[in-house]
Amino acid sequence: MTTARSWLASAQDSPFGVHNLPYGVFSTAARPGRRRIGVRIGDFVLDAGGAARAAGVPSVLLDADSLGPLLAAGRPAWAQIRAGLTAWLTDETYRNALSPLLVPVAEATMHLPFEVADYVDFYASEHHATNLGRIFRPGAEPLTPNWKHLPIGYHGRAGTVVVSGTPVVRPHGQRKAPTDAVPDFGPTRRLDIEAEVGFVVGTPSELGTPVPMDGFAEHVFGVCLVNDWSARDIQAWEYVPLGPFLGKSFATSVSPWIVPLEALEHARVAPPARDVEPLPYLDDRGGEPWGLDIAMEVRLNGHTVSRPPFATMYWTGAQQLAQMTANGASLRTGDLFASGTVSGPAKETRGALIELTWNGEDPVKLPDGSTRAFLENDDEVTITATAPGPDGAVIGFGEVTGRVLP
Amino acid sequence: MTTARSWLASAQDSPFGVHNLPYGVFSTAARPGRRRIGVRIGDFVLDAGGAARAAGVPSVLLDADSLGPLLAAGRPAWAQIRAGLTAWLTDETYRNALSPLLVPVAEATMHLPFEVADYVDFYASEHHATNLGRIFRPGAEPLTPNWKHLPIGYHGRAGTVVVSGTPVVRPHGQRKAPTDAVPDFGPTRRLDIEAEVGFVVGTPSELGTPVPMDGFAEHVFGVCLVNDWSARDIQAWEYVPLGPFLGKSFATSVSPWIVPLEALEHARVAPPARDVEPLPYLDDRGGEPWGLDIAMEVRLNGHTVSRPPFATMYWTGAQQLAQMTANGASLRTGDLFASGTVSGPAKETRGALIELTWNGEDPVKLPDGSTRAFLENDDEVTITATAPGPDGAVIGFGEVTGRVLP
To answer: Fumarylacetoacetase N-terminal domain location, by residue (chains A, B) (predicted)?
Structure first.
């Protein structure tokens, strides 16, 4: 399988070659109300339901307006459908039947690919947590005492998860600088991004039954990119003692393409050494850990400002899943959990402006001569990523992008 | 309308008289797979879809297996349907047609009445927040500096909201006493309850557009009771800096009956005086505030341990809604937001064991001679509530109950 090549020219040497095959939901201008499942291949979106019909194996999982039914179908169905897509896109026999079902990427409007059930955001980068600790709690230990014992997480707002390209309206809220006597209310002055990786749950689990780390591939369908937009002034004032709320809940953007977990088999790497012994339910040192070598890039108005390395994350997705369900909490199809900001050890690998600019003290310089401590109106932020595939292939995640509106 | 009486004997002088008419979803042993919308009246559940058909006005909103379509229909539809139900249950003409559609409460199995979209939990009782501040942060100001400026809240897990009667499995998690060097993993030793009131959102709102306080009745369909089960040892170790997560997400129980907001018109009272001037978007002092005189009762193994008075809440549901959307976050049909623990000023009005027993130091005594610092296996907790209706009528909320399993 790893040496297969597509009959589609633009799939050769593409981050969307036959080893990737990410899923999304698209429509076209000709039929704007008709949402269909699409599979990205080269510079095209393959109408997946149509392709299955053309191949003589119609699929209710692919003939849908959301990835929901496919997500719910479970790992064996995912493998079977992926094998079918791979065959159809590599076997010349299918070229004539499938070619009319290829929509140029530029003609496809992408939609939120599934209904988000619960959204959980973790805090799994040691570099990010250390930087934020130093900024928010100067003089104290940067990491809280629990940090190396468990992946810290919290629930976010599922209803405001939006697809890449959705504009982000600058949120209003209560802002209070340490020097102010009382808060005032108005648009955030410290609008930020967080470059993250998100995991999409397919197979649900029973209430009362934890999912161990080795259940990761059974329950997780795939991976996307996440921009967890953050209003730092709102967040700083509200977050004690119950955590982030309105500083985050105005919008969370996700990339339109969900990269199947199977496409990331060659991206698996060992996570960093753990300097505190994990409790057994989080101890992946004797198993097959789920570190992932995903190279991310953050662009602000087209200019690259950071290259966060996901391989440096202290806690893996499998550990996050085990933690999230350790108390018996059930999973639902469509649950989304994100890694938290991905920041590496070097300054130019930090995944949030608050770290890149050190709380605004050291603004980012853009090629047009302007600087940014935080985001201004009309700024556009784009996060992209790639991971290694088989035989030198590159697995592309596409992008998650958004522009700030006043 | 306020003097209307039902032709149903058991509805007379009942907390489920014609001034209440709460909605739920039920099935019967004869047809266990058939979920229907029911309206509680006296000692019966009225098959609401059947009643509409019998009355000659079939309704797709009532002929459903969930309250979802009704919730989404909006305030004018809610008023129209409530007027119809009131007419059918008070006008003798309908007695013969509707009587066969009355199912004795004991024969109805109640289900989760709607799919919870996002679940938000507030922290709106000054007495509760003060007590917890004293317990968790001794020596410091009990209320955080933001507390009187905004209703503090956080997102909880929507997927583990369960209907009353669902057993609660004692959750496992990391526990670390201040005297322990490292955490261990095991069943919580400090399982607690939180007696709360929940608000059910019907009408959605647009992303980017805040809902002001006077939009409360347009968007909120009704009110239920909530038990926000809490594992205090897990919570204490995990909650800094991102708030409660696994200490709460194992289960949140809700009462099966949603009391329509219209049924609470006579329960409206002025909230407590605010000693910090609210910012304009939260300032209800010149309007018609949404304080609600709901008298709650908490029973542990049948013994009343507390009577929390909802009228003492510092922040109202309307303020919570305005806060939750102030940043432009959208509402979805099925969003549930809860008040946080309801605690009054007196010890016997505190809505959580951690307060009632002052962190376990002063256990609750039960009639069988046993005591409780926190919940033991097989303990059953039941929360009930009533509110004043018109002409001396009482509006009942029914109960939210749950038993602890090992």
So the answer is: 19-113
